[in-house]
């Protein structure tokens, strides 16, 4: 490999975790006064069956109501009946697991750079509190944004499988946006029309090595996803995701073959805040590594999104302004030390 400046200072957490008794200072999460609770109560997240939602039987209405309640109360739901087989999801999962099991030299062939943030790496070049995780971050759609040079050559099936998964999630995302519209009493195409064509899809394989002190470090710090929708393929063996609800952390269980569907900031905006993008974080495990595959779906950066007209009224005024390229909003918010959703709210009545 040609060693870049970035890869020279890169410290994979995977390597750090070997023979580590205490995480280095930079990984100690000091941003909260409370200790990290690795075993909070379990969140009762409804399991939504897409087959049942799309059927013409009366159970479809019940399922739609369950979806509405679930998204209103926790901003996410567990989706089954999505049409992807268990063995296909296992294959998607294993291309990530196999990639992180490669020797470092091999993984570094996909190393991200300052010019191209896609690829393998973590945030160890940054100075803030670091997260106990390594990642493989790849734009998978639209085609002209894909940087295949950052995609692993090994395992050999990686590219074909991730592209197949992308196509399946693309279709699933459209269906989910339609059922979310219906659950808000909007016409089925309402959210999808705003979402538009040539949307962005990003795959992020999150690898969390076992950590000697889960009470001191986080796999991912508290955040809300900047997406429209996130689909998360969880680790079947090891849990770690937590969602903040009513100012308390809850752990998210893994449901076999379900995809966890997370409402992102951009659906929060389009729904005029009826659906909230949940704040979540990831805790580590002292015994076992964990890996997840997140698929982030967002409108194309040229697209404007705003609260649906039908959801604005005298009693429920418009809460967010019209925004374009939410990644720019995120950057602006980061510079101002605010949450992106707060920036989307500023001066909304002026637009
Ligand atoms: O790994 C997880 O459980 C969640 C990861 C996550 O929140 C993210 O990638 O945005
Ligand atoms: Fe997230």
From TrEMBL:
A GO MF term = metal ion binding
The record, for PANTHER family, names: OXOGLUTARATE/IRON-DEPENDENT DIOXYGENASE (PTHR47991)
Q: What is this protein called?
A: Fe2OG dioxygenase domain-containing protein
Q: Which InterPro entries match?
A: DIOX_N (IPR026992), IPNS-like_FE2OG_OXY (IPR044861), IPNS-like_sf (IPR027443), Oxoglu/Fe-dep_dioxygenase_dom (IPR005123), Plant_2OG-oxidoreductases (IPR050295)
List the source organism. Daucus carota subsp. sativus (Carrot)
Q: Which segments constitute the Fe2OG dioxygenase domain?
A: 197-299
- Write the lineage as a comma-separated list: Eukaryota, Viridiplantae, Streptophyta, Embryophyta, Tracheophyta
Q: Which domain of life is it from?
A: Eukaryota
Q: Which UniProt keywords apply?
A: Iron, Metal-binding, Oxidoreductase
Keyword Coiled coil annotated? no
Transmembrane regions listed in the UniProt entry? none
Instruction: Give the family this protein belongs to, as stated in its UniProt record.
Output: Belongs to the iron/ascorbate-dependent oxidoreductase family.
- Pfam families, per the entry: 2OG-FeII_Oxy (PF03171), DIOX_N (PF14226)
| Presence of the UniProt keyword Iron in the record | yes
């Amino acid at each position: 490999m040609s060693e870049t400046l970035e890869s020279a200072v890169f410290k994979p957490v995977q390597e750090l975790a070997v023979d580590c008794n205490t995480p280095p200072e930079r990984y100690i999460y000091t941003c909260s006064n409370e200790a990290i609770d690795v075993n909070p109560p379990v969140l009762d997240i409804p399991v939504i069956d897409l087959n049942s939602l799309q059927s013409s039987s009366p159970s479809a209405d019940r399922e739609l109501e369950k979806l509405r309640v679930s998204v209103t109360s926790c901003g996410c739901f567990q989706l089954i009946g999505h049409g992807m087989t268990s063995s296909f999801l296992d294959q998607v999962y294993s291309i990530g697991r196999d990639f992180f099991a490669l020797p470092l030299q091999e993984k570094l062939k996909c190393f991200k750079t300052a010019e191209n943030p896609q690829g393998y790496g973590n945030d160890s070049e940054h100075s803030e509190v670091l997260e106990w995780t390594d990642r493989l971050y790849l734009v998978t759609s639209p085609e002209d944004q894909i940087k295949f040079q950052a995609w692993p050559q090994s395992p050999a099936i990686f590219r074909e499988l991730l592209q197949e998964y992308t196509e399946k999630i693309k279709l699933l995302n459209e269906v989910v946006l339609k059922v979310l519209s219906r659950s808000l009493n909007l016409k089925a195409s309402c959210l999808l029309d705003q979402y538009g064509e040539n949307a962005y899809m990003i795959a992020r394989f999150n690898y969390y090595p076992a950590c000697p002190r889960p009470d001191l470090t986080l796999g991912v710090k508290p955040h809300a996803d900047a997406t429209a929708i996130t689909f998360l393929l969880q680790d079947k063996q090891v849990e770690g995701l937590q969602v903040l609800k009513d100012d308390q952390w809850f752990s998210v269980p893994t449901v076999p073959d379900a995809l966890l569907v997370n409402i992102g900031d951009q659906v929060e905006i389009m729904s005029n805040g009826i659906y909230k993008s949940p704040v979540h974080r990831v805790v580590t495990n002292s015994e076992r590594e964990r890996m997840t595959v997140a698929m982030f779906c967002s409108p194309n950066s040229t697209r404007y999104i705003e609260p649906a007209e039908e959801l604005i009224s005298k009693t429920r005024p418009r809460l967010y302004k019209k925004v374009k390229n939410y990644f720019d909003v995120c950057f602006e918010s980061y510079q101002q030390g605010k949450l992106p959703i707060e920036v989307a709210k500023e001066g909304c009545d002026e637009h």
